[in-house]
Amino acid sequence: DRDRFENLIKQEWFPNSNSCNSKENESEGDESRVIKLNIGGQMFEVSHKLLLKDRFSLLAATAVPEEDSILKPEENGSFYFDRDWWLFRHILGFLRDSILPEKESLLRDLFHEAAFYCLSSMQREILLVLTERRNKKKAFSQLQAQRDTYDIELESNRKQRKVKRKNKNKHKKKQYYADELPDPFGFTSRTKTRVATVL
């Protein structure tokens, strides 16, 4: 079934040169054809061309002829998927413009939704975004840890210098000035030397 589906998609995307002219009008009609999708009770009308963006997905299977598709439409012609329609909006946004939301928790939910719809291209892009963000967070954490270590070492060195200065002052010998000064004539003066200040 997969080989037949793949061959059918190739024919729709890359028609043979012999049949190109004969099916030109038919191809133009297919590109403008609208497919109805019922996602969890919410109806979406999506172009045939957009659904074929990821050609091996379940969404692409809704765009091929009914006899060659693995999916069968409902009586009203729509394809029903019992999934979250709120998340499906982001899937359509990715298929249209390759845009993903910023919120990480939403990206994780979309990854599981993309797995259900077999949207491998979307899964790869989400993994790439999450890995890049994880690496940035890891690099930031390492940088912050280095800064914290530097601050701790700086504070430790500051405290060590403070303790050394304190110990140095504690053990510093006090300088005493003799109360008695020798007399050049052999007499001893017991009077303290006083400095007279002349104003």
Task: Note the main attributes of this structure.
single chain; mainly alpha; two-stranded antiparallel ribbon; 56% helix; 3-stranded mixed β-sheet; disordered C terminus; rod-shaped; 199 residues
Roughly how many Å apart are the termini? 116 Å
What structural class do the secondary elements suggest?
mainly alpha
Number of helices in the DSSP assignment: 8
Order of helices and strands: HHHEEHHEHHHEE
Q: Which residues sit in consecutive blocks of at least 5 with pLDDT less than 50? A: 12-24, 190-199
Q: Taking all residues together, what is the mean pLDDT?
A: 76
Strand tally is: 5
Rg to the nearest angstrom? 42 Å
Biggest sheet: strands, sense, closure? 3 strands, mixed
What's the overall geometry?
rod-shaped
Structure description:
- The chain is mainly alpha-helical and 199 residues long.
- Helix content is 56%, strand content 10%.
- It is built from eight helices and five strands.
- The protein has helices spanning 2-13, 17-20, 24-32, 48-51, 58-61, 85-97, 104-116, 120-171, and strands at 34-39, 42-47, 79-81, 181-182, 188-189.
- The strands form two sheets. It has a three-stranded mixed sheet with strand order 2-1-3. Strands 4-5 form a two-stranded antiparallel sheet.
- Helix 7 (104-116) runs antiparallel to helix 8.
- The protein is rod-shaped and about 135 Å long.
- Mean pLDDT is 76; it is low at 12-24 and 190-199.
